[in-house]
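Table S2 (continued). Query chain:
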Amino acid sequence: MKRFKEILCYVGGPADPSPGLESAADLAETNKAHLTLIDVLPESTEGPWLTVPGKPQLEEMLVTSRIQDLEEMAAPLRERDLQVTTVVTKGSPFVEISRRVVAEQNDLVIKTAQGLESRLGGLLGTTALHLMRKCPAPVWVVKPPSSERFGRVLAAVDPRPDRPGDDPLSLKILELASSLAEASDSELHVMHAWWLHSEAMLRGRRINLPPAEVDGLLREVRGAAEEALDKLLGHIDLSRVPHQVHIVKGQPYEVISGFASQSDVAVIGTMSRGGVDGLLIGNTAERILRRVDCSVLAVKPEGFRTPLQFEEAQVGAEA
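Corresponding output:
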């Protein structure tokens, strides 16, 4: 079971942060992890702020007030013997959260979904998408309303047929998903989507490959996918977690989205196998993230480095 040590929970904005905060607290309690509550206030370097008398004093008052808010949230958690730190800083939320992750080596970031405010019109807002692209730690976006227990955790994996069993990103997805399932007494569903590239063209009138040959190719592709998935599963112990394994023919974004609609949280990878800094898996991941309406835990491969450049250390105010 994956053990988290440093959990960072973003409680920004006026909306009720309780779903993400509750999930963060439960996970911190289960893992005996240190929990940091962070909010990021906007910079006041332009616009009407320029002409406000006593601007530094007002900024300090805002920071102090927000720290008090976070301390009120932390108080009942400390009564549960959780180790909780509160931090308020200024700037762009995804930048400052990523900065904190790099400085403090947080191994998980949690925030509540606020997608109704996003231009995408889906569950995930722009801050969540920026974090999924650029934050070094796994990012868990919790859909409200949430509960202390999940019924179903989805692990969407894509094992490599050319190197079966040697896929660090898929192994990381499995590890995190099984940890969430075990901690919440939930059922784990491991899913892999496979398909034959250009099957429609092979069956089309221009190429018109005999049906038996196309069917043979389908059996070969499915067989390779099953072998790769079996070898991947052989690298992790799921004996303590009730689980089901699904290997489904279809485009990944369609299959994953369909399974996610029946899940409480979906654990997916957000990086291509090439590991290009700051990029999602092209259209596949973008389509998945725009479609899902469950909580999402987005995972990057080991060794990922944020494309953000931190020229100066932004010091946040701590209680």
